[in-house]
Design brief:
Two copies of one chain form a homodimer. Chain A is built from seven helices and no strands. The radius of gyration of chain A is 21 Å and the shape is elongated. By secondary structure, chain A is mostly helical. Helix content of chain A is 40%, strand content 0%. The first copy, chain A, has helices at 13-25, 32-42, 50-78, 92-100, 104-108, 116-123, 152-155. The interface between A and B is large, with 46 and 38 residues. Chain B binds a DNA duplex through helix 3.
DNA sequence: GCAAATTAATGATTTATTCAAG
DNA sequence: CTTGAATAAATCATTAATTTGC
């Protein structure tokens, strides 16, 4: 075994545990800076990169939602008779509620395993520095020169505008409702560039 | 006015021209490295970051496609009688065809405006180095160690795998076969979107 | 008990949709 | 309205679980 090329990241139990803890605490879409920190901390438990953290949150969030959706659907399908309003509340709200108090930074110190190693690991650039910042733009970095943001610039938690997905899937047709797939056969929907 | 924070990138005509030229040449989804180079070149004509290039291609591709879809749809709606096979080839194929010969790297030297400035600009880290490489992972870098792929593995151009799913397996329903999206059901709806 | 063959999870990409600045 | 930016959904691909035959 040369070195196990292992194309893809395989989270260690510790890493996974911490990530899940963070997720439960409300972390949804950490920005570049936060990802950096998370990565730095997790790096102590094994090889990891910023993108891994990024993807993990993306996937975890998406699949959590998917799972819920599926459950609801299945339930709805099987039990024609809609039970009263006493259906078991879908739990997710719990996490959301917790998020309200803004736990992002706090979580970082959850385990506060004061291992200088972590920081070092990140700083020493394992094999390439972690300064990445593309799609996951860190809105902050640009403000590096700022030092004097206009106000709420730094005030609000930089990344995820607080809790957008709070109401996960309010059956609102937000994204699933209207698409503009004009060629989708079916109704001769008027896709005619509408009112222009 | 502090310094015109200018939240979003505004491409100069030159930059735009070059980008469009590249797009026409077949560039669709440049990887991190390529984006770096493009950024470096375009940086000569004005402020620009990797993410801008990334987003530009994303959006341009998506909207080009959308535009076509819409046009086709409109046509199909207006002209009930389906024209023979001589309908104007949906253009995208053109790009695809061009892509077959793999123009990505070549394009880089399309203009080969040997301005050391560009490279310098990128290298000097305007205010932060451009080594980014997150979501836009460069599939190439990881493959560096490979060296011994199973076959067409390396043959295909690194980025947009032209036709990977082509004939991997004999329709064994391994992973792509079945979906279980239970809630799909109604997704038709008109495309209007009405632009609120 | 084990290894090849399936299936289930999940990491990584790509595509579609949405938001909001100009 | 156009389009840069951001997010979510869909999809692909690889790893881990598991089943199965020996």
């Amino acid at each position: 075994m040369p070195q196990t090329p292992s194309t893809r990241w395989c989270p260690t139990p510790e890493q996974l545990m911490i990530l899940e803890e963070m997720y439960r605490s409300g972390v949804r879409t950490p920005n570049a800076v936060e990802i950096q920190q998370i990565t730095a901390h997790l790096a102590y438990y094994g090889r990891i990169e910023g993108k891994n953290v990024f993807y993990w949150f993306q996937n975890h969030k998406a699949r959590e939602r998917q799972r819920l959706r599926r459950r609801l659907c299945a339930r709805h399908q099987q039990q024609q008779p809609s039970p009263p309003s006493s259906t078991v509340p879908p739990a997710p709200t719990a996490a959301a509620a917790g998020a309200v108090v803004q736990v992002h930074p706090a979580v970082m110190q959850l385990h506060h395993h004061h291992h200088p190693y972590a920081a070092a690991a990140a700083a020493q650039s394992h094999h390439l520095q972690q300064q990445a910042e593309w799609p996951v733009v860190d809105y902050c970095s640009t403000a590096s020169a700022s030092a004097s943001a206009t106000a709420a610039d730094m005030a609000i938690p930089p990344c995820c505008r607080p809790l957008k997905t709070l109401e996960l899937f309010p059956t609102k047709s937000t994204s699933g409702g209207l698409k503009e797939d004009c060629c989708s056969s079916s109704k001769s929907s008027s896709c005619s560039t509408s009112t222009n």
